[in-house]
């Protein structure tokens, strides 16, 4: 695997033409690359149009599980970008796709600690679910005699970003994982922070997953970046090999690692979470990088 | 006590993700603190122009068991730890679960601590078992020796480890979370000196 060899330091993107000619597909992370919160990042529409005009396939992969692919499609449309739903792979979709890939029984249920995106994708895939945002209103009272029941038919707990996160949900998820034989613990992602608004960083899905891990002492199965589940899924779907792909993202420990784990080329953009200046060291090996201002400019010169 | 012994500045504040017990002790020790159960009622509004502000004078975040835990508290704690220079991240303990009611186990402080730790990507200073902080404090306060002490507990990874780390004798009771199969399982690496069913066995055995 690439990591075993001596780390090659990242190189600044200069020859955009060479990069574009060397791959057939570009995978874009969304938060910090395409948009920040609900604001489009400068130069993105022209960049996407340019790549499409050169016959490149574009795919969008996001760890943000709050929306379904359909809802993301609407977000792209609102921002004036023409992107097909089939080109979008959110970690909410990944959770449902994973359950399908293991033939998760339709008579089993899924307990969701997360938002609408996960619920919608599970429903589309034909799975029964409980939980989600409405459990945010449920309270518990730790007093003598209080007993929390849980559904013994829950065969998987899916945990993702959840702004309605509370003690009830942690306990419910924990009871299922601990007491239902074979119950899966699936995490959409483990991002420490996320850009819910463009003004600042917010505690990410990694917090909710951390809480359930803290209570169950079990490691989850991660379906989002940097796990290669989504990469393998789309490579199979589009009939491409990963060496024909360039992964473009703003985070080293999810996007770049995702690309490296999958065997793709990797391009880091500085428009997202990372602040300029920063030092590129071993974890950015084999990545090329460009600043947000020059990504579009660089590629548009071609 | 940890804050006192480490000369925490009285001008700084403490943000608490936890319940009244922590707030009461901090106030008793003369520290300015806020957060606690009240913040369990606060929500965040994720609209385009919303900016989540936090007090730049918070010098320590203390995280413990919190049944009113929510996203607001997690975000507030994360911002303090990440953005206030030198802000301490203190955990009362990291127990995954506990018997908050006698009928079943419930998520422990370890849950809240893990949530904050994963968000800030930092490990906390743990003041509760199995950290030896409390023992060091006890020894200083009461002029004792650990070789003449017996730690009695029901949990291997907190109670027994605490006793072992500090050089006490250790007695595991099977009246709580640990069962005999748990103790004897091949994967268990923490072995107390002795075990028994419950503390009452001390009386029963003496009477024999």
Automatic annotation (TrEMBL), chain A:
An annotated Gene Ontology molecular function: phosphoglycolate phosphatase activity
UniProt-listed SUPFAM superfamilies: HAD-like
BP GO terms, sorted: photorespiration
Subcellular location: Plastid, Chloroplast
Active site: 29 (nucleophile), 31 (proton donor)
E.C. designation(s): 3.1.3.18
Name this protein carries in UniProt: Phosphoglycolate phosphatase
Cofactors required: Mg(2+)
UniProt function note: Photorespiratory enzyme that dephosphorylates the 2-phosphoglycolate produced by the RuBisCO oxygenation reaction.
A single cellular component GO annotation: chloroplast
Annotated binding of substrate, by residue: 225
Cofactor, free-text remark: Divalent metal ions. Mg(2+) is the most effective.
Catalyses which reaction(s): 2-phosphoglycolate + H2O = glycolate + phosphate
UniProt superkingdom: Eukaryota
Positions contributing to Mg(2+) binding: 29, 31, 250
InterPro entries: HAD-like_sf, HAD-SF_hydro_IIA, HAD_sf, PGP_euk
Similarity remark: Belongs to the HAD-like hydrolase superfamily. CbbY/CbbZ/Gph/YieH family.
Keyword annotations from UniProtKB, A to Z: Acetylation, Chloroplast, Hydrolase, Magnesium, Metal-binding, Phosphoprotein, Photorespiration, Plastid, Transit peptide
Gene3D superfamilies on file: HAD superfamily/HAD-like
From TrEMBL, chain B:
Catalytic activity: 2-phosphoglycolate + H2O = glycolate + phosphate
UniProt cross-references to InterPro entries, sorted A to Z: HAD-like_sf (IPR036412), HAD-SF_hydro_IIA (IPR006357), HAD_sf (IPR023214), PGP_euk (IPR006349)
Keyword presence, Hydrolase: yes
One Pfam family per UniProt: Hydrolase_like
Keywords for the protein's UniProt record, in alphabetical order: Hydrolase
Gene3D superfamilies, per the entry: HAD superfamily/HAD-like
SUPFAM superfamilies: HAD-like
GO CC terms: cytoplasm
GO molecular function term, any single one: phosphoglycolate phosphatase activity
EC number: 3.1.3.18
Keyword Hydrolase: yes
NCBIfam families associated with the record: HAD-SF-IIA (TIGR01460), PGP_euk (TIGR01452)
Family per similarity comment: Belongs to the HAD-like hydrolase superfamily. CbbY/CbbZ/Gph/YieH family.
Protein name (database record): phosphoglycolate phosphatase
Originating organism: Aegilops tauschii subsp. strangulata
């Amino acid at each position: 695997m690439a990591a075993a060899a001596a780390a090659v330091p990242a190189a600044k993107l200069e020859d955009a033409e060479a990069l574009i000619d060397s791959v057939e597909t570009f995978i874009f992370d969304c938060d910090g690359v395409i948009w920040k919160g609900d604001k489009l990042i400068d130069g993105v529409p022209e960049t996407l149009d340019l790549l499409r005009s050169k016959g490149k396939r574009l795919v969008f992969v996001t760890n943000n599980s709050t929306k379904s692919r359909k809802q993301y499609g609407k977000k792209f449309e609102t921002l004036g970008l023409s992107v097909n739903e089939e080109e979008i792979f959110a970690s909410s979709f990944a959770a449902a796709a994973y359950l399908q890939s293991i033939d998760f029984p339709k008579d089993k249920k899924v307990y969701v600690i997360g938002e609408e995106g996960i619920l919608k994708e599970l429903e589309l895939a034909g799975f029964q679910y409980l939980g989600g945002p409405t459990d945010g209103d449920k309270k518990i009272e730790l007093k003598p005699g209080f007993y929390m029941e849980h559904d013994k038919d829950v065969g998987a707990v899916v945990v993702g970003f959840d702004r309605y996160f509370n003690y009830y949900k942690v306990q419910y998820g924990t009871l299922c994982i601990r007491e239902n034989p074979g119950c899966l613990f699936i995490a959409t992602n483990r991002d420490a922070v996320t850009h819910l608004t463009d003004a600042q960083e917010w505690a990410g899905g990694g917090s909710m997953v951390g809480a359930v891990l803290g209570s169950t002492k079990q490691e989850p199965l991660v379906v989002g970046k940097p796990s290669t589940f989504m990469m393998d899924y789309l490579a199979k779907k589009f009939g491409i090999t990963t060496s024909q792909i360039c992964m473009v993202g703003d985070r080293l420990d999810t996007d770049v690692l995702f690309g490296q784990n999958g065997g793709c080329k990797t391009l880091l953009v500085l428009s997202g979470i990372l602040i300029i200046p920063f030092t590129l060291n071993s974890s950015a090996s084999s990545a090329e990088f460009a600043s947000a201002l020059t990504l579009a400019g660089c590629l548009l010169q071609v | 006590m940890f804050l006192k012994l480490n000369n925490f500045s009285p001008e700084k504040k403490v943000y608490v993700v936890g319940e009244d017990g922590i707030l009461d002790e901090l106030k008793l020790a003369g520290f300015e603190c806020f957060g606690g159960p009240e913040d369990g009622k606060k929500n965040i509004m994720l609209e385009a122009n919303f900016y989540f502000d936090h007090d730049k004078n918070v010098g320590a975040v203390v995280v413990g068991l919190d049944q009113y835990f929510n996203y607001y508290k997690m975000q507030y704690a994360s911002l303090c730890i990440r953005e206030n220079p030198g802000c301490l991240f203190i955990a009362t303990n990291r127990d995954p679960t506990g018997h908050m009611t006698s009928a079943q186990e419930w998520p422990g402080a370890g849950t809240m601590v893990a949530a904050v730790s994963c968000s800030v990507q930092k490990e906390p200073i743990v003041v509760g078992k199995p950290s030896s902080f409390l023992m060091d404090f006890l020894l200083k306060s009461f002029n004792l020796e650990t070789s003449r002490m017996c730690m009695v507990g029901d949990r291997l990874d907190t109670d027994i480890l605490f006793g072992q780390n500090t050089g006490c004798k250790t007695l595991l009771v099977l009246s709580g979370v640990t069962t005999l199969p748990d103790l004897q399982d091949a994967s268990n690496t923490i072995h107390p000196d002795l075990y028994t069913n419950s503390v009452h066995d001390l009386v029963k055995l003496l009477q024999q």
